[in-house]
Fold this protein.
Amino acid sequence: MKKKIKIALAGNPNSGKTTIFNNLTGSRQHVGNWPGVTVEKKDGTFTYEGIEMKVVDLPGIYSLASHSLDEKIARDFLIEEKPDVVVAIIDSSNLERNLYLAVQLLELGVNLILDLNMIDIIENKGIKIDIKELSRVMSIPVIKTAANKGKGIDNLKSAVKDIYDRREKNTFEIDYGNDLENEIRNLSRFLGEKKILSRYSLRWLVLKLLEQDENILAKIKGLPEEKEVEKKVFESIAKLEKHFGYDVETAIVERRYAFLRGLAKECCHKIMGIRERKEITDRIDQIVTNKFLGIPIFLGLMWLTFQLVFTFGAPLAALIDSFFGWLGGIVSLGMNVLAAPAWISSLLVDGIIGGVGSVLIFLPNILLLFLIISILEGSGYMARAAFIMDRVMHTMGLHGKSFIPMMLGFGCNIPGIMAARTLESEKDRILTILVNPLMSCSARLPIYTLFAGAFFAKHQGLVVFSLYFMGIVLAIVVARIFKSIFFKQEVAPLIMELPPYRLPQVKSVLIHMWEKGSLFLKKAGTIIFVGVIFIWLLASLPAGVEYASKESLIGKLGSLLAPLFSLAGFGTWQAAVSLLFGIVAKEIVVGTLGTLYGVEGMGLKNVILQQFTPLSAYAFMAMSLIYIPCIAAIATIKKETNWKWTALAVGYSLILGWVVAVLIYQIGSLFS
Amino acid sequence: MKPLSKTLTGEKVEIIEIRGGRGLVTKLLNMGFYPGVIVEVVSNCGYGPLIVAKGGIRLGLGFGMAQKVFVK
Ligand SMILES: Nc1nc2c(ncn2[C@@H]2O[C@H](COP(=O)(O)OP(=O)(O)O)[C@@H](O)[C@H]2O)c(=O)[nH]1
Ligand SMILES: [Mg+2]
């Protein structure tokens, strides 16, 4: 049988895990699909000396005490799935804190390799790390890499193979001092004899119990020996705390850091007298997080982002549009020549090319938006934005870290909702998820572009901006209301590392952009494709009916729903149907209108001009922004929360959307 | 002893005590911010989040958190 080595990359956030992952796997990687499949984990494969290796890139963690969902995922993978080899990716310029995680991994008993990444940074500072000594003290293989330049990756591969072949039990232990060690021994004996949770390394289990780790305590709950264990642990803790005069958790953490401080001192040698200069990062931060300049700079960058997305996106979109126009023409001509039945020609031209084409037009905009978001993330600015916005977010009942999910929501709500995992408090996380769909994702953009382009050509930018702004204001209002109903507690305070500013790497940025963009393509190829065919079918049946006419199935369905929307000024059956299908994916709204009116591009614009008024067009755009998240977003919300919250997200958005659309139309009508 | 929120930019202070919810305390401890550690206040405008530094690590703390970390 061919063996396959399972490798996990673990490390602090920003230590270079993803860069190493990209270097190892190249293009042979698979990024989580839409939720429901094996989403959270980014995995890939590579072969080294004939052996197939499977790598998983885990979310960044500081320790094995998990707080946020993100950290839980990483931790559960390491603890429960037991990868063959774990590579601890160490940011060498922050040796102590990065080794802290490595020490915990060793205590957990995993097969560990230490990868001193960012070695270039520390060597440029004139510091040399003695890896022989480090390897001897921790009794594990140690290698150096500079992942952004692809250096040392081969060493890493061979180290993985070596350690897998040897498979020795690691014997490294930190000496926690007599008092702690005594209690560790006592508890180990007790737990060992009773074989409690014996799938974990004993020493690690005992330490976690002494640290009162919530996850491990939860695992003890319900065991027959629950009471006995709790009593024993409590006795030990009481004894130790009396002795130390402060809590055991702090004592354990302190001992680990004390050991690592010593180790780091021993292993780092200053070889040249390079003068420490004031860090560039601090200098940039003094401007960017300044109390007066911070928010204006932030707003300026946002404005620039949208300018770039639209100015550079528009000509590319026009190119794609004319391509599909041309393709439709060719195909319908070809069908005539072949004398194919009319329905086949209609399926291809009206249904597939028209429908999918009207969606793909937005690929350039979406790629550009994700390109800029990846650059902001990669440079380290995104963390600052969360930091700057912490106060503002607090006033709306959210957390500074809620800000990044909101930002990402402008690209697509799905990564936005998933990004809420970095929030430590469950309540903050759920609230962030609930309002995320109000962040106008790029899939709504086609709707705005079409309607604003038709009715407000002169002020298109302003009108589209007003919709984004409306989404934000509504998110604030909704967050405040939900906060006061469901989550009365205070928002958890912000604790967030601000990574040093770095020039984002072209390769990483492009990969990241492509990951996100390809999800959109995949959607166009699957959900949207199927949706478009389904719509075409409903528009063509019953047999003999004129395509997409009022007598078709879809026409009847639309006529049924249309009265609901007449108060909002768009009570046509076509509008009702397009909104209905928009739930499949918001991009489909435009595609459906195209199919129903049997036109696309400029033609569609002309039809819209006849069917809507400026006021009803604006109400329709507002409705499209607010009502029901798309199916993929609903599935993600369900996956990240539960049915109750998902139902709330769907319900409130539908009602809110309708109310806002009706208000816009009714109030607007008073003035015109 | 005073809360971190009352420090000035540029001050070097020693952490004495961290109060607050268990999860947050655990997080700070594990990130290397435990009693006895000396940190430098990189920026504190007095009413909002502030930045503290320990070695090369820059940590952003919300105002709420800064009121719960006691230093001298
Ligand atoms: N100078 C230097 N930068 C690196 C190195 N490895 C990664 N980086 C950069 O560090 C940043 C964070 O890397 P990333 O892989 O996203 O970290 P992750 O959060 O652990 O996945 C990126 O900007 C990388 O380009 C390295 O060895 N040297
Ligand atoms: Mg990463």
User: Anything to note?
Assistant: The radius of gyration of chain A is 29 Å. The longest strand of chain A covers residues 4-11. The CA atoms of residues 8 and 451 of chain A lie 48 Å apart. Confidence is low (pLDDT under 50) at residues 31-39 of chain A.
